[in-house]
Amino acid sequence: xxxxxxxxxxxxxxxxxxxxxxxxxxxxxxxxxxxxxxxxxxxxxxxxxxxxxxxxxxxxxxxxxxxxxxxxxxxxxxxxxxxxxxxxxxxxxxxxxxxxxxxxxxxxxxxxxxxxxxxxxxxxxxxxxxxxxxxxxxxxxxxxxxxxxxxxx
Length: 153
Description:
The chain is mostly beta strands. The chain has helices spanning 3-8, 13-16, 33-40, and strands spanning 20-23, 44-45, 49-52, 56-62, 71-76, 79-86, 105-112, 123-127, 130-136.
């Protein structure tokens, strides 16, 4: 496995089969964002910051313009998948654009976790357009320092 794949992952449908869903949102049609985007096959990528502190793995992403109900976060085995949709509220014809750089539509990102986490205690919050997913490390994944004693008499 390449270092890139190990740390940034790639979408793995087989891993999702045993998924424990942390956040699932449905619209009026009863479909989750994942089901809606699978029909089109076109999705954008999502930029992530992933870091750890003593107790947690933290994933952050700027997703301005996305409502919490338009996000679907799934944790399966050691992989986190974030899917969502940035909806455009106004329809503008192509000939009226001077520049079009913003991405509108479905997006996803999968990330392979480098340590074991406690899925049942996972939390997701959004503030000021920044999604923060906090995944507590599993007790056996936390590092412990061992002091070496001298046996010299």
